[in-house]
Design goal:
With 210 residues, this protein is α/β, with parallel strands linked by helices. 28% of the residues lie in helices and 30% in strands. The protein has a seven-stranded mixed sheet with strand order 3-2-1-4-5-10-9, with helices on both faces. Strands 6-7-8 form a three-stranded antiparallel sheet, with no helix packed on it. It is globular.
């Protein structure tokens, strides 16, 4: 997995640009409204979704498997953002409890056991009253069903990427025991897609009881 992401970042570098995803912008507003300051971003990438949180006064910590991506993020943030080098399967990297966690377009790359561990680990690092927001690809996206079927709603694309596509039932099943508050389907602009200029995702919000 590490080799795959290193190769991907070397080949494409900052292919998504530096503008944050729409869901990152809305999550930053949510965190600001709830006065959440200490934020963890698993799957940090090169940091395109981090600046919007920093601009609202948050302190951001990241987790990223690609050293190439971390090096790119340092060009933008210097030492202002701490990014742990490793996979989310190695969480937790510290004993800190965070006010908010934002995980964008990562969880659907994992298998069932890995997804369950990520959700549990994130919830475990959330302070009481904290929020976590996941953005996960939907079954209603145009690319659903492409490639080789690995299991129910999970496919391997022709590029070797394994994707699990969520619907309302699987969102409820996987997040229901972790303070699930709400989830909504949204369109996220996506570059370099073959079928559509946008893809459908679920934005999933959970809150830990105070």
């Amino acid at each position: 997995m590490t080799e795959f992401w290193e190769s991907s970042f070397r080949d494409k570098q900052t292919m998504w640009g530096f503008d944050p995803a729409d869901s990152a912008i809305s999550t930053a507003k949510l965190f600001q409204k709830n006065e959440l300051k200490e934020i963890l971003i698993p799957g940090f990438g090169y940091g395109r979704n981090a600046k919007v949180f920093i601009d609202t006064g948050c302190s951001v910590t990241g987790i990223e498997i690609s050293k190439t991506a971390i090096d790119l993020s340092k060009k933008q943030f210097g030492d202002a953002v701490k990014v742990y080098h490793g996979g989310v399967d190695d969480m937790p990297f510290d004993k800190k409890r965070y006010d908010g966690i934002f995980c964008y377009a990562l969880i659907h790359l994992l298998d069932e056991k890995e997804r369950a561990k990520l959700i549990e680990d994130c919830y475990g690092q959330l302070r009481p009253g904290g929020h976590m927001v996941f953005v996960a690809i939907s079954k209603n996206t145009p690319t659903y069903g492409d490639g080789t079927e690995l299991s129910k709603d999970r496919f391997e694309t022709k590029h070797g990427v394994k994707l699990f596509f969520y619907d309302a039932d699987s969102v409820t099943k996987e997040f229901g025991n972790y303070g699930l508050i709400e989830f909504e389907e949204l369109n996220e602009p996506a570059k370099n897609t073959e079928k559509s200029a946008s893809q459908k995702f679920w934005q999933i919000r959970c809150k830990k009881k105070a």
